[in-house]
Amino acid sequence: MTSGIDSYVTVSGASASYKIDSYAFGDEYRQVVMLGGVDASGDIVTVSPNGALSTSSLGGSITVSGTSLDNILTKNTEIDAVLDNILTKNTEIDTALDTIDGVLDNSLTKQTEIDTALDTIDAVLDTIKVDTEAIETATEAIQVATEAIQVDASAIEVLLTGIDSDTDAIKTDTAANEALLTGIDTVLDNILTKNTEIDTALDTIDGVLDNVLTKNTEIDAVLDTIKVDTEAIETAVESSVANAGNVLTLHRPVIAPVAGLDVNIKPSTSSYLSHVYIDLDATGDNPATNTEVIAAPGASSKLVIYGVQGSIVGSAAAAAGNWYLSDGNTAAATTLWTGRAQGLTNTMFELTFPYGVALTTNTALKVTSTEAANHIFINAVIYYRTEAV
Length: 389
Description:
Blueprint: E1 2-3, E2 9-12, E3 17-25, E4 28-35, E5 37-38, E6 44-47, E7 53-56, H1 67-244, E8 274-280, E9 288-294, E10 301-314, E11 320-327, E12 335-342, E13 347-358, E14 365-373, E15 376-388
Antiparallel strand pairs: 1-3, 2-3, 3-4, 5-6, 6-7, 8-15, 9-14, 10-13, 10-15, 11-12, 11-14
């Protein structure tokens, strides 16, 4: 047995140390534990329980007794526990490596997908690059156009400055015109007030003239009565003379005419009445709404109604309807005359107004008719004059 004292491992314990070395046993080497060490001759130095050293030749095994062996056994147990822990850790490491390998496989798959996506993105970027170059070209053209617009804008600003000056001048003139219009409004208000006063005076004059006309009418009636009585007296006188047998010739006194004096009593041409015919006597003529009968006479004039005459009848026993003469458009406050047809009875009407019925100044006379059932037929004549206001 040859000791390999040139190379060994020393293991230190709590109370002693030992070495692990290899020795040749024939053709093979074996690992042995040496307690204490070896001497110069190559024999193993052993340690007794009491600490004494002894040497002996190895015969294939070493026997160590006492506490040293217990320490060795304890250390071996500790080593076994450490080795078990190492084995457990190695198993955990293998499991972790398997997990990592799976993760790496998944990562490789994802990287392949990422490479594919990157290839697609690269193609899209190439397209975007082409589009970007086209956009840059268009942008350059837009920039040129923008520069031209800026030049035009400068010219427009100059023009607007001139317009602003003109606008200021117009504002000044407008203010002057407004002041002038205010003065004109005041003058017009005064004129309107005067016109109102004139209208009132004319109404008063119209009333006076109406009274004069009435008096003239009464005088005409008295004169007519005097004329009749005079003729009766003349007839009676002539009859009495004839009966008396006297031949008398009665002569009317001859009155010499006075230059410029017309002794004949007659109305003036301006006192004659005008008339208008209302013809609503055919199917479809009625109903009528605010149909003009006499047009408005114009400013400072008004219509005066002196009489109405006519007839109204229905088309069947159940026929019914009304008609109205009005001062302008028909309403309760403007109705001057109204009549009604009921059934087949032909109703005649005739009415005169000695003093006249005046319409509002410059207002037309209108007719309105209604049909409640079937049809109505109307014929009428209106007598009127146009009077100055």
